[in-house]
Amino acid sequence: MVGTVNPSSLTGPGAAFDARPARDAQRPVETDAQASHSSAAAHDPALAWRAARESVRLALADLDLTLAAGNAAAALAAQLGDAARAEDGARVKALLEEFEAGVSAAIEAGGSGAAGATLRVQFEADAPPFEIAGSDLRVKPEAAERAVVQLTAATNADTPEAAAEAARAADETLARIQAELTRLRSAAQRLENHDSFLAAAEGALAGGVRADLDAETARLLALQVRQGLASGAGAIATAHPDSVLGLFARE
Fold first, then answer.
1. Overall pTM > 0.85
2. Burial (0-12, 13-18, 19+ Cβ within 10 Å), 119
3. What is the tens place of the pLDDT at every residue in 113-122?
């Protein structure tokens, strides 16, 4: 499920980000063992579907952490804006530090999307990976025009002018993070839908419905996954398991 990490753990005075990775998964960086597994999957349809599902689940774990960090960062940006308008310099400084610490903790826990990394999801062994752009939530020395986070390491409310600029930057950061959260939630939902479909396909193979699945049937199954991903439609995701099993039936 999207957002298994409690976003409230990133907010509130003295609260710390829960660095336990969602789904007990490591960050989605391909290791030598995974590369070997992917190579073997190219010659074994059953293994290919297991590898595809693992790729989806790794990406979902990353997105869970990124979304939790984004939710908490949005809440902190809103609080920082209020503190800046009140010209409360100490509060602005504390909130900025909490913002930075929360995002850093999410990245260290495996949420590479919060560092702006692009997630590469391998839906099948012989197809290009599907890419999901991350959202860089880190506070930088200077804010680029297109950066999501417009707060900078120098943000403060020490003077009326600085406080006004901090409030503007916080408001803009909040708006941009909210837009990114909408995009990432949509991507995560689509991955969850396809994970359900892949689970049905994997279960069919594991159940021995057709142990000698041929390459043509595997390609048909893969084509349906790609079409569902491209359209964003829920037809595949909500299909009854029997319709998936039908793909494996002997002619």
1. no
2. buried
3. 999 999 998 7
